[in-house]
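Weekly puzzle thread! Below is a chain. First person to post its structure in token form gets bragging rights.
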Amino acid sequence: MRHFLDFEKPIAELEGKIEELRRTSDAGGIDVAEEVGRMRDKAQALLRTTYGKLTPWQKTLVARHPDRPKCLDYIAALIEEWTPLAGDRAFADDAAVIGGLGRFRGRAVAVLGTEKGSDTESRVIHNFGMARPEGYRKARRIIELASRFNLPILSFVDTAGAFPGIEAEARGQSEAIARSIEACLDAPVPFVATIIGEGGSGGAIALAAADRILMLEHSIYSVISPEGCASILWRDAAQAATAAEALKLTAEDLRRLNIVDAVVPEPMGGAHRDTAATLAAVGDKVWGLLEPLLALDGATLRARRREKFLEMGRNSVV
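Winning reply:
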């Protein structure tokens, strides 16, 4: 069953009426094709109008949509000969961070990502995409493995942020994130990161300090969640919509600020309405950015990557 967000209620009502007419037609043999067509056109027009003027908060809700394609969906669609790697060789395996080796369009690559899960059981298994220290240590291990064997790195990021529990802090959460960012910046191989849903705080940048950063049209990327920002500034999480506007967290804002390198358009109504088209579009864009990087040597890649992130700091004032 399709999930509808609060601002999509008029669309949901129209699509519900269309489905009801179809059931009536099937049961009574009544020809309602003309009426269904007219209502379908109206629903599509309403969808275009609604998604043509989304606010930053509404984009945040779309980025969190439960049916949105997840990291494992991208891996299944884009990576051949997928071989997952587990564990940080120190404490445990963190299911929130996905990592392994495979082939992307015939090229051997290392792959990283954060996985939220697609139903209640898998969300619990993957801790809703919130990694613990061992997840970031696993990411660092795979980045170092890729560096050793000259494998390009692809990452698919979708996380609200690192797990905030006391046990994570006790096991060195901040150090693990910092070391993962360091490994990203130091890798002498091409690195393309894609924000596929939420890109939350250091938990996201730990897997996205890359040569090229993509965002899907309705994904978000921010130092803090709108709710967290609102709780700090106004002591009221209900001010999240105001915070989302101030944070400049949309793909459009971040492309304008040169924080990300490219934006991948989504099907009308969001990535969840046409998963196959979304996965194909991301694959094409990732390859288009990865291919030129393959010709560069490690020293050049590292120097350019360092300069890229230094430049973000110089231009950080909005």
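Puzzle host: Confirmed. Bonus trivia for everyone else. Strands lie at 80-84, 97-104, 107-114, 153-159, 191-200, 212-216, 220-222, 262-264.
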